[in-house]
User: Fold these one by one.
Assistant:
Number 1:
Amino acid sequence: MTDALVELHRLTVNFDDRPVVDHVDLRVQRGDIITIIGPNGAGKTTLIKAILGLQPISGGALKIAPGLTIGYVPQHLTLETTLPLSVRRFMLLSGRSHQECMEALTKTGVEHLLHASVHRLSGGEKQRLLLARALARRPDLLVLDEPAQGVDINGQAALYELIRSLRDELNCGVIMISHDLHLVMAATDKVICLNQHVCCSGYPADISHDPAFIETFGRPVAESLAVYHHHHNHSHDLHGDVVSADHDDHTECSHAHH
Ligand SMILES: Nc1ncnc2c1ncn2[C@@H]1O[C@H](COP(=O)(O)OP(=O)(O)OP(=O)(O)O)[C@@H](O)[C@H]1O
């Protein structure tokens, strides 16, 4: 097994003696996309803040690979709207060279907006700009907090597709928070369902049947996601390894969705 970029062992964060993140285990390697889902107040943002070193932990262990570069994409771009700011200037504020900034903008498909005002960008363009700023750091790990907020449904699918192709190109790890359950559950990436503790985790087809998942999101939501369930004749562990198989002549699932 390759070395982990980030490894959490029983990580706990308390606020006023109340565990908001409770004994969470997580391991992220290069190539992984791990999506954290869970209801409001479940501790998702607190968990990624702890990984980013912005939130002190109350217990457990957090191991970060030495020299790890993290690219962070926050939920929103919060800027002083009275100050004029072009995309170019915004990118250069990251401290990276013009060429690195241009490469990153090209990767996220917004290089044509170089001279535009950041205040006039659409929701989807802003998210692509934030992603470009994170990429300019050439990260080993991308951490995204609801990257598709304020983006329409087609734009969301395109953004998730872009994140997947960037993962392939950069061979980085990705941790993201998402509320877009339909998109998350239609994908084939690993999912962690958090509600202070990890309720369930694994691949969508496996966790969507999990009683803890149904309890967390309610039966109507779980049933509405049934459209994405596919015939799955084996299970995966959190690292994607097949842990059981009904047939002995296959090692992968047919991820054909309806
Ligand atoms: N600095 C803080 N001090 C005290 N309580 C906090 C602090 N930050 C977060 N909390 C509380 O911790 C809980 C988890 O918050 P967090 O933002 O991690 O949830 P979340 O899963 O990201 O929620 P959402 O989906 O609504 O964004 C909430 O009850 C929140 O009020």
Number 2:
Amino acid sequence: MAAKVSYVVGSNVWVQDPEEAWIDGEIVEVNGKDIKINSTSGKMVVAKPSNIYPMDPEFPPSGVEDMTRLAYLHEPGVLHNLKCRYDIDEIYTYTGSILIAVNPFQRIPHLYASDMMQRYKGMALGELSPHPFAIADSAYRMMINEGASQSILVSGESGAGKTESTKLLMQYLAYMGGRSGSEGRSVEQQVLQSNPVLEAFGNAKTVRNNNSSRFGKFVELQFDQRGRISGAAIRSYLLEKSRVCQVSDPERNYHCFYMLCAAPKEVVDSYKLGNPRSFHYLNQSNFYELEGLDETKEYLETRRAMGVVGINSNEQDAIFRVVAAILHLGNIEFTKGDEVDSSQPKDDQSRFHLKTAAELLMCDVKSLEDSFCKRVIATRGEAITKCLDPNSAALSRDALAKIVYSKLFDWIVNKINESIGQDPDSKNLIGVLDIYGFESFKTNSFEQFCINLTNEKLQQHFNQHVFKMEQEEYTKEEIDWSYIEFVDNQDILDLVEKVIEA
Ligand SMILES: Nc1ncnc2c1ncn2[C@@H]1O[C@H](COP(=O)(O)OP(=O)(O)OP(=O)(O)O)[C@@H](O)[C@H]1O
């Protein structure tokens, strides 16, 4: 809770530097509303009281595990605590029952040692160091003890580490709810192996993250009377379709395209593929390889994981046939046709890609060409066919590639769900929500707008539960407390949602 402070000469404080960073120092002079601070780096700063925050003189050098124990809960205090812990490889910190994870961008082996799940089993939150396993354990125990379904919300901006945290949560829940000694395709193994499959088709390299999820995911684990996983359902939201045909430096298209181009030679030959640099949907950006990633191995691993989640070999071939077809579609270029404002494939190369795409999609080549170069307008009683110019034909081609890819993704999610199976008699559920993180680029598309709006909605849900409802409860119970300031984004939501409603 925030404590009342007075600014006196000699006390240590945080002050916001004009460059937006927080610096610490000692108050050396108080002149009305101007406070002079000598920072530890030797810089003299004059600031107003509203920009100055008190520092806890008893703050331990390695920080505190739970930030509710901070003498002053303010932005510089929170950031300083997270930094102190991060410096000693402690990337997890609690704020009450909320776990904050700071992305280390490197493996920290001691955090995920083989005995770690065993250690967290049945331990109350806070007894051991903060960890996603503790959060998952707490949700699991609450479900068992109170007989109530639980949900875990994973939130943060793009690249913050949500997907990695989600995987750890699911790993722990699979450990707790798994059947010991079960082999083959158990529900929990299928749930865990759904991750590499969905990442292959729904993740891509972005400016912020080499493995950015370009879809939202809600995993619902179903448990029986005895607390064992009896079924699961994966729901996906809003796959970013535009990426299929449009990639800008230094990003990449979805991983599956690159891994297929690096598949064993007989596979690549059978789909008439080759170097990713020769495909329009991949070569709009100069990024092809990801550091430390062997695409051939990824291809084989993805196929293995597909097998575990119940996608058989024929279905796997069909999936990759569609992926290959999309690459060929992207290489069909159009030129002016014989009639006014009409179009046709540009040359033999384009005709080759058109024919290959038709073969792979198992459709008639002429019908495929017509679907790009012509538009059928249905009027009452008759259908009028209109020719399209080369630009419009290319747009139709891209539209087809996007819709086919998004249907393929939905099909994969459905197939995984069918294969894992639902338990209609399940007693309780634990849901884990992992959505794409907040993004802000120089130019933001409509998809970024939707992603960010979703994040604002989640932030409001968080505000509701963590601040508004808690504080209302304190007021109702007449508990002596001091109000915690927080940025309420309800206005932003009202603005956007009311406009959408209108
Ligand atoms: N706990 C961790 N330990 C080691 N590396 C991590 C950890 N968390 C994240 N990373 C690294 O950071 C990268 C980005 O993390 P992640 O994909 O989980 O971010 P995200 O928040 O899900 O991003 P997006 O919203 O873009 O999908 C990971 O690919 C991994 O390299």
